[in-house]
Design brief:
Layout: E1 2-15, E2 19-26, E3 30-36, E4 53-59, E5 68-75, H1 78-81, H2 85-98, H3 108-117, H4 124-141, E6 160-163, E7 170-172, H5 173-176, E8 184-185, H6 200-222, H7 228-247
Antiparallel strand pairs: 1-2, 1-4, 2-3, 4-5, 6-7, 6-8
Helix pairs in contact: 2-4, 2-7, 3-4, 4-6
Length: about 250
């Protein structure tokens, strides 16, 4: 068995004295693990850092075997991302989210989204919007997608202000007013076609929204805790916005 694909390094772990187990997210083969012989060498370690885009070849005698990777660098994002606290935690958050997927299950949309995101994860405000949109996409890929396009009660396409915690569907301001204290806020920047940037309050609402549905639909049924990396990312964002406020700046 053999294939070649493009992939994003999610992480590595030691194997024996000189080798490493490489975990990647690939375009056509999903999240995949394989052995890299000599992966702990000085020559290969820079290529195998999390966040790097690599060209991969995989070979095994049988499809169900771990197999052996050969990885060649395409774009080395790791050094730039590791200079940013938000970048490190964002990358670790994405990797933790992808581990919710079955290994070797293709999810090309998630791969392409992450590939685009790598250019911006060291920009905290941009990274925040991208990560929360990635979480919405992941919920959809897991079968728990939210319907934010129209009001569940009236069918209205405008003035959508809430999301029902029961159905995951948008609700207009007027229709949701009697139950506003039970609803989740729908930040304006997440409304389809909004075309606006998020401020700190909107990002807090957005992560509260996705966090609620991850907890209810994914973590709790599987007996899992939310990833620590996500909490670290949110803390890094909070520090970023606090510094901006102290300087009287903006997130843009």
């Amino acid at each position: 068995m053999e294939w070649r694909d493009e992939g994003i390094v999610l992480g590595t772990r030691k194997h024996g004295e000189t080798s490493a187990i490489l975990e990647v997210m690939t375009h056509a083969h999903g999240r995949h693990l394989g052995l890299v012989r000599g992966g702990r060498s000085r020559r290969q370690q820079p290529t195998l850092q999390a966040g790097n885009l690599v060209d991969l070849s995989w070979r095994a005698r049988l499809d169900e075997h771990l197999g052996v990777f050969q990885a060649e660098p395409v774009t080395l994002h790791a050094a730039r991302l590791f200079d940013s606290a938000a970048g490190i935690h964002a990358l670790q958050t994405l990797a933790a989210h992808l581990r919710l997927l079955p290994e070797r299950d293709p999810h090309a949309a998630l791969y392409e989204a992450m590939k685009v995101m790598l250019d911006h994860l060291d920009e905290p405000a941009a990274a925040a919007e991208l990560v929360v949109r990635f979480e919405l996409l992941l919920l959809e890929e897991l079968g728990f997608g939210l319907d934010l396009a129209r009001c569940a009660a009236t069918g209205a396409l405008t003035d959508l202000a809430y999301v029902s915690p029961k159905t995951g569907r948008a609700v207009s301001r007027a229709a949701g007013a009697p139950w506003h204290d039970r609803m989740l806020a729908l930040p304006a920047f997440l409304r389809p076609g909004a075309g606006i940037r998020a401020d700190r309050a909107a990002l807090d609402e957005a992560f509260r929204l996705t966090g609620f549905f991850f907890a209810r639909s994914v973590y709790e049924p599987r007996g899992l805790e939310p990833p620590q990396a996500r909490a670290g990312f949110l803390a890094a964002l909070a520090r970023h916005f606090a510094r901006l406020e102290m300087r009287g700046g903006s997130a843009a």
